[in-house]
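ok so I'm stuck.
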Amino acid sequence: MNPLFSKKFSKVTLRRRQLAKSYQSNVALSHNKCYEKFLRRSQLRLKSVVSLRKLLAQLIESRSKLFAERKALRARARALLKSNVGAKLVEQ
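replied:
not stuck anymore, here's the structure
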C-alpha cells in the first residue's frame, strides 16, 4: 500500500503537525497581544486627544470672552471720548 494514503502517520509527521498547530496558535496569541497593545495605546491616544480638545475648547472660550470684553471696553472708551469731545465743543 502507498504510504501517502495510509492512515498511520509516522511520529515525525505527527510531531510536525503538532508543531505547526502550536506555531499557528502562538502566532494567533501574539497577534492578539499585539492587537490588545495597539488598542490600549490607541485608547490612551484617544484620551489625550479628548483632553487636548477640551483644553482647546476652554482656550477658545476664554479668548472669545476676552475679545468680547475688549470690544465692550473699546465701545465704552469711544462713547466717553465722543461725549467728552462733545462737551468740550459745547464749552468752546
